[in-house]
């Protein structure tokens, strides 16, 4: 097991390609995208995610801790310009090269 950073981004689907490009530019090449995400913002009142007519996406990606600064520098301007939220947390990654069925 080793420590990695989990990056969770909820944004307008229109900006998906820009966000994925920024992650790739930061050296984060793997990700998962869940489309048609609905929800309510944590802040009082309305925000872009609640008011948009376009679908929202949920992006989850993982990176090594030393890659995080580049991710924030590349993703933050997009979220500031187009709206969306990003959460980063510490998680433990377990890599296994053996199939569970072989145990």
Automatic annotation (TrEMBL):
GO molecular function annotations of the record: enzyme regulator activity
Top-rank lineage group of the source organism: Bacteria
Give any single GO term for biological process: regulation of nitrogen utilization
Which Gene3D superfamilies does UniProt cross-reference here?
3.30.70.120
Protein name (record): Transcriptional regulator
Taxonomic source organism: Desertifilum tharense IPPAS B-1220
